[in-house]
Every structure is written in C-alpha cells, then in structure tokens.
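Bit of a strange request maybe. I'm writing a small parser for structure token strings and I need a real example to test against, not something I typed by hand. Could someone generate the tokens for this chain?
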Amino acid sequence: MATKHEQILQHIDSLSVGSKISVRRIAKTLDVSEGTAYRAIKEAENQNLVSTIERVGTIRIEKKKKENIERLTFAEIIKIIDGQVLGGREGLYKTLHKFVIGAMKLEAMMRYTEAGSLLIVGNRTNAHELAIKEGAAVLITGGFDTDDHVKKLADEKHLPILSTSYDTFTVATMINRAIYDQLIKKEIVLVDDIYTSFKESHYLTTKDQVATWHQLNEQTEHSRYPVVDKNNRVVGVVTSKDVIGEAKTTPIDRVMTRHPMTVNTRTSLANAAHVMVWEGIELMPVVDHHHKFQGIISRQDVLKALQHLQRQPQVGETIDDLVSKQMVIKEGEQKDITFDTQVTPQMTNQLGSLSYGVFTSLVTESASRLLRKYKKGDLVVENISIYFLKPVQLESELEIKPHLLEVGRKFAKVDVEVFNEGALVGKSLLMAQLIDR
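Reply from user aminoacidic:
Good idea to test on real output. This should exercise your parser:
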C-alpha cells in the first residue's frame, strides 16, 4: 500500500503537462493535510516533475530525458533571467530548441525565427506579433512591455511572452551559460545510468530463509544480496559470512546486516566509486528518495563506466578537462615524469593568480597520470594536503613534477611539486586508493 506522500507523487505524475498545481487543490482532491501536500510538491520539484515560478505558481512540466537535458524549458529560463510572464503561461512547460537575437531588420529576423525558438528582442511590438504567429516564444529585454492584442495571441497559441530588465547581450550570455552547464551535467555519469534494475537483480525478502541464500548462490555464484521488506524498502544485506554455520531454516532477517550502505539513483559515479573502494564493497543496493529498492550496482559496473569515460570526448568543458587538455609530458627520468602547462585566464582567481581549485586539479591529474604509467588502474583521491602555494600570475609557464613516495596493491602516496622559471611555487601531497582494472 502506497503512503499518502507516494500517492500524491503518483497523482502529480499522472497530470497532463502544463497543468497548474496548488497545495490546497491537492489536499482537497486526495484528502490529505496541506503540510503533506506541500512536502510532496517540493519532492516533485526535486524530481523535475513540476516547476514553481514567482507570480505564476506551480505547473506540471515535461520530465526531460538525459539525452535532451541541454534543452531548457521556458519555466527554467524565467528563473535564469529573473523575469516575469506577460502572456502564454500555458506554454511555460515547452522546451527551447534555439534562440534568436533580434538585432536586425524585421524581414531578416523572421527568416531565422521558427517554431520552438525564442526571439530575444527589445521594444519592437511588430516583431513580437510576427514571432508568435510563426510559433516562437518571445523574450522582451530592457524591462519593456508589449501590446494587449499580442498577449492575447500568445495566450491562444500557448506561447510564452517573457520580460526581463536585463539587456539583450546579458540575457543571451546567461541562457548560453545555462545551456553549457546543462551539457556538463549531461556528461556526468550517475548511478541511474549504469545500475542493474531490480527486475534483473537477485535479492531476498525478510520472509526468506537461509536456504534461499544457498539457492541463489548456486544459481549466480554471487555471495552478497540485498534484503527488502514488504514495502520494497532495503533493510539489510546478506553475505556469505552472515550465513556460515547457520541452519537453512533460519530467517534471513536474523542473520542479515542491518542498515547497509546504499546509493541513490542520483548519486554520481565518482561518489559511488569512492564509497565502494573506501569500504571495500563489491556490490551495493540502489534506492530511490524513499529508500525503495531499485536495483544493484557492482564494482565491475563502476570500473567499466570509469574506463569508458576516459575514452570519451568532452562536449561541455570543465576546469578539470581544461587542466587535463593543457598538460603535456615534458620528459621522463626513471620513475619521475614532468608535465608542462600554462596558466590561462580560466585558471585564475579574481586577483589574476593561479587559484587553489585549479592547483588541486593539477596535482590530481599529474598524480593520476604518473600512477597510470606504472600501475594499470585508476585512483580515487582520499586526501590532498597543500603545503603552500605562492602567487602565480597569468600566462606563467609551469613545470609539474609528481614523485611516487609509496605504492602498494591498493594504496599510493604521491608528492607533487610545481615550478615557475625554476622556482618552487607550490607543493602538495596526495594519498589515493587504487582501483585495479
């Protein structure tokens, strides 16, 4: 039996895209308290089922697939530009395919304006009207308004007319930055992308006995299984150590390890890898926001995904990508290698010198490359100690020298020194857990 919270989420999910949602209406429809309705609506917002917009309210939006994550809805654009809706509220759930800056003659502007696009333009009412007729939304910059008949047309066609106090260039930059951020998010691998669904997983219930564990062990040769209760919530894990010496009729819930470590479907691959390596876990249950069993993730799943990522080109470039791309091997002497790089504007802080965050990326990348050269595996950083970092100005040429201090089967310690024109400007110590390929 689903809880009231889950019933509300199911109800919201069943609503058509564009439907308006209110706490009072949900509470009355499902006969729940307004507090319960409010918490469920907030959860729906976290799950990207609804969007709350100032002066508009909460509306049901289209849940985007990961491959289309770079497309923003007009509801998201309102938040980005801190704007307001002048008309066409019913179309806020729609997604933006491209935007056009209206800084040209009307005829030329209309050649680029098409259905699904967003025309960014100032106080040009005729352009607003023509864009709506073409099936495009309109974003009016400079805080201007538009005519009432244009707003009425937007309402009829369910195409938003938005307004913002920012200028056209600033708005275009903000939207472009948001799309770029979405591209980076798209590349971040989550547990949701690689886990094995519960339909294809083997698990036990609290009603099972130790005999069931032995049956699964013979079928799969696995030794670790999640345990779920009658509500499909993960309540424990059973391993081969737990069943040693136990009678086959012993209930599973008496031998299982309670409160096991789990990962959420929205957990990043990097986070999952760190937990599994640090805790020495071969398999972990995957749960949703309500701790309900969704499937499993194994150490092999994580390793395959990590290796696959290293071979993929980057579309949205992060600071780590920038650092990695610019570091070039200079020379090699025995077990020591040296990397060259240059300090670019993106690598500096507000004072124009190398930032601590970028220095950390330089340390991690150089240590990772050094370890990959001698140990065929990847690393999960456990700790980085920065002893000092002197100011390093823009366009400085750097030499990065990682030294392997200690390495074992599962652990490594690397000292990293950074030089500028022969002078030591930064020193750090990195300790990491190693993952065998």
